[in-house]
Amino acid sequence: MPPLLQLDHVKKSFLQPNQGLLGRKKISVINDVSFSLYQEQCLGIIGESGSGKSTLAKLILGLEKPDSGNIYFNGFDTSQRAWRKSSIRRDISAVFQDYNASVNPYFTTAEIIAEPIDIYQKISTKERQKRIDSLLEQVGLDHSFYHRFPHEMSGGQLQRICIARAIACSPKFILFDEAVSSLDISVQTQILSLLADLQKQLNLTTIFITHDLTTITYLCDKVIFFYQGQIVEQVDNISQLSQVNHPYSKQLLESILGF
Ligand SMILES: Nc1ncnc2c1ncn2[C@@H]1O[C@H](COP(=O)(O)OP(=O)(O)OP(=O)(O)O)[C@@H](O)[C@H]1O
After folding, report:
1. How far is ligand 1, taken at its centre, from the CA of residue 204, in Å?
2. Per the database record, which ranges form the ABC transporter domain (predicted)?
3. What does the pLDDT look like over 222-253, one tens digit per residue?
């Protein structure tokens, strides 16, 4: 079976800001990144701050265009014009770190969750209500949350709403960009456990971008170590994590093992 997601020699650079128009230099942020992700796999991408993780996420989600190289989703080249109108795009979803910025503060929970449903699916009001309740239940919340506004919820509850929205149209692939990093440790654990359950129940293919290796060991089958815009090491079976070779991967591993 072909990979669901494939990156082929992807490069991205940005003009350095505030250097004056003539002296502006390009800095390379993503440097020749290639990897494949197969259906129902969960890939962890770990890298330090500024290593280019969010830029990589934006490239995968189509929010940025690569300077060179290609990104294929289900065999479809996402740089092609036809991709924009393709219904396969609906199979891609995302959850971001900043749950407050990810929602409209004037929307109720039901309106937030229904955003993708209202765009992509024509269903009756009754069906829509039932679907929202079922999504609330899937993320561990009950009907009492239906009419709440974002400011009436905790960070963990609001992130659950963002997860409900992300799965509302049954995507095949979800990218989580530091999705638990801003939550308290105990809430992080609850959300990670929810994500592990959803991954199994919905047969999802996922990428989990984080700076925390513990999160990756909890959820992921494979891991990419990302350093200064490059893949420095890839472990295809998480049970072989202890065999990493690159100094950066070793340093991260030692930090969680408490050497
Ligand atoms: N639109 C942009 N224009 C110019 N430079 C950018 C742009 N987006 C990102 N960068 C630069 O690219 C580099 C990588 O940024 P990115 O946000 O991808 O890193 P990151 O690994 O996600 O960091 P963090 O974990 O701190 O969010 C940084 O030096 C950043 O300043």
Report:
1. 27
2. 5-253
3. 999 999 999 999 999 999 998 999 999 998 88
Beta strands in 85-130 (DSSP E): 92-96
Question: What's the pLDDT tens digit per position in 120-142?
Answer: 888 999 999 999 999 999 999 99
144 pocket-lining for ligand 1 (C-beta < 6 Å): no
ipTM rounded to 2 decimals: 0.96
Q: Does any domain span residue 154?
A: no
CB 72 within 8 A of CB 78: yes
* Nearest ligand 1 atom to alpha carbon 58: 18
Ligand 1: distance of its center to the CA of 55 in Å? Answer: 6
Within a domain: 12: yes
Does residue 18 line the site of ligand 1, with CB under 6 A? no
The C-alpha atoms of residue 24 and residue 4 are separated, in whole angstroms, by: 37
Is 109 within the bounds of a domain? no
Residue 134, exposed/middle/buried by CB under 10 A (0-12, 13-18, 19+)? exposed
CATH code of the domain containing 224: 3.40.50.300
Q: Write the residue with the smallest CA distance to atom 7 of ligand 1.
A: 14
pTM: 0.92
Which residue has the least CA distance to atom 18 on ligand 1? 52
Structure-block tokens of residue 85: 């109108």
> Which atom, in ligand 1's list, is nearest to the CA of 15?
4
Is there a domain that residue 136 lies in?
Answer: no
**Of residues 84 and 115, more confidently modeled:** 115
53 Cβ inside 6 Å of ligand 1? yes
Residue 219 in tokens:
């959820």
Percent of the residues in the chain that have a pLDDT greater than 70, as a whole number: 97
pLDDT confidence of 168, banded at 50, 70, 90?
very high
Q: Which domain holds residue 17?
A: 5-101+172-257
